[in-house]
Structures are given as structure tokens and as C-alpha cells.
Amino acid sequence: MEQIGLTGCKSYDYEEIRRAVDFLWDTLSFSRLVKPGMTAVIKPNLVMKSGPEGGVATHPLLVAAVGTKLKELGADVIVAESPGGPYTPTALRIIYGGCGYLEMSEKYGIPLNYDCSYSDAEAPDGVRSHHFQIINPILNADLIVDVAKLKTHCMTGFSGAVKNMFGTIPGLMKPELHCRFPEKPDFCEMVIDLCELVRPQISFVDGVIGMEGNGPTGGTPRFVGALLAGTNPYALDLACTKIISMKQSDALLTAPAARRGIGPESMDEVEVLGDKLEDYRIPDFRQPESRTSDFVLDYVPKFLRPAAKKILTPIPKIRESDCVGCGRCAQSCPQHTIQIVKHVAKINYQDCIRCYCCHEMCPERAIDIKRFSLFKL
């Protein structure tokens, strides 16, 4: 039976975070995984520049608390991330600064990575992908500590410990994987292949403030008041989906992991240490609008279902009044279906694969997820 830890954390006050981290660390005996002199890489979720309490990025003070704990045990600690967009020292500095990590690094002595090299890595046991390009700080780590954010996700349903490993792919190579795996099930199997390749030994999920609705960047911050941890990221994510009342059919990374035998099928296979999971459950946590109502397809002839599914799958829609023509959506689009015309983004829906990368990377939140009008009836 897998074990995870759960404890309350009601604010981002450093002392309260440190108390919660220490509790989870001791409860789950994480110290046994840390050896003096080892290189410990902390992998937060810094998908884009966003303030510490906006629900988008892992809070810097949680990373500070985890990093300080690792340093106390003699590890050499560094924070590494590859956000969407160019993977360069300049781009990293902008992201670090915008997410509050430059200040955190200076105050708590937690180094930030600026090595933008990467290498080929083979995944011989992969189901969908047998080859990845991974940032070198991750490949060179003795210990990977996954410090994720609790969020909904328009592509995978939920973003937590498992999806956070997608940030080990160099920034502009992420769209290539979206293009190779445009269907959600295939994409999620690929993410699991990646997570198994760069498997974190310790995982935390920042659930003090999560994100509901159209995450991982375009949703709404939602107070949850919890911090979770474990050694199995799939068990951790399953527990998180229960907290946000997500149907398992919508959490697209947990069921495939269970079928592979690397994650639990239900919470009956997970022992929760610390607080009770039910005490944190939020029944009205808003889910992504990108979900396809597949029940409609049951009434469509089989030969028409592929075309019908494309029509019924929600689309990204530009709010032209809020678009500033920055081009981040076009840069992130794996199909190159977006053009900037007269300082406004335009989407060619004929080639759009509904990966929602544009929605995820828009710094102005000027892209909505729109359902086919049938669902408004």
C-alpha cells in the first residue's frame, strides 16, 4: 500500500510552511533518502511569470522550506525548471523574478539553475515515447524533489506531481511533443513515460492556494489550505483529485498509471498519514471547460465520430479586446496555426489540435475555452 502525507497549511507564512514541511518529512521518513554531498534538484512548477500567490506557480517559500531542509541534511541543493518558451538564462531570470524566486534565493541561500544545456535520454520501457530530451540538471541529479502546484489542467484534467515533470523538457521542445501526441490519452501516456524516466524520489504538492476552472494558468485561485507529500507521484495526484472532487474519468494521468501497475487504482490502495482527506474535500471546485461530453458521441454513427469529436471538443477563443499581440500563443502552438494579424492573434481552427498550449501560455489571459453551443442549451 502506498503512503502519502497530508497536513493543513493555511497561509504562506514561512514558519507555518516550515512546520508543515517538517511534519510531512518526518512522517514519511524522507531523511533516509538524503545523503550528505548528494546533488538534490528541486523541480517547482513555474510554467510562466506569475506572482507567488496567484495560484499558477509553486510558492517560493515552500521551495525555500524544502531546500533548507535538504541543506540541513548535507545535500547540495539547486532549483531547476524549464518553463514554456525559450530555455535561456535571460528567460529563466525573468521567470524567476516574476515568480518571486530571485528574492527567495537571496534570502534563503537556495541556488537557481541557469545551465540551459540538455541531453538525449532513452526510455526503453516507454509506452508512447522511447526517447526524450531532458534538461541536464535533472539528468545529473542524485535526488529529484518534485514540488508541484495543485491545479486543474485543460489538457490532462489535473496538474500535480506527475504533470510537473513535463517541465524537465527544454521549453520550445514541448510543442513538438504536443504535435506528436495530439490526442489526450496518447499525450498523457507520454507524460507518464517521462515521469518514469525522471522519476522524482520525493514529491510535494502546494495546495495552500490551488487553481480551479481553466488551469493551469487561466483559472481562478482557490484556497485549499493543504500541503501533501509522498514518494509515489501517482498516489499523490490521486489524493489531490479527491480533494478537488474530480471524476476519475477526467483525471487523465491516474488511470493509465494504475493500468501499468505503477499507481493506485483507488484510494483504498493509499494510506493517508496525518490529516483526513475528507476534511479538505471541496465539492464545488470548478473543473476545466475543455472536457468533451463524450456521451453525445454515443448517439453519432461510428464512422462520423472522429469528425464529431473534433466539432464537439471545446476550442481556444481569442478575446480580441484583451489581446496585445505579444505572440506568445503563436510561439507555443505546436501546429503553427496562430498568426498575429494587425496586433491580434488569429487561430486557424482547421489545423488546431485542441492542446490548449496557447491558453496556457497567454500572459494576458486573453484566451478562453469555448464549448460548442449545444452545451449551453
TrEMBL record:
Classification via Pfam families: DUF362 (PF04015), Fer4_10 (PF13237)
Keyword Acyltransferase among UniProt keywords: no
Gene3D superfamilies reported in the protein's UniProt record: 3.30.70.20, 3.40.50.11440
SUPFAM superfamilies: 4Fe-4S ferredoxins (SSF54862)
The keyword Iron is assigned to this record: yes
UniProt keyword list: 4Fe-4S, Iron, Iron-sulfur, Metal-binding
A GO molecular function held by the record: 4 iron, 4 sulfur cluster binding
InterPro entries for the chain: 4Fe4S_Fe-S-bd, 4Fe4S_Fe_S_CS, DUF362, PSI_iron-sulfur_center
Ranges where the 4Fe-4S ferredoxin-type domain occurs: 314-343, 345-372
Function: Ferredoxins are iron-sulfur proteins that transfer electrons in a wide variety of metabolic reactions.
Name of this chain's protein: Ferredoxin
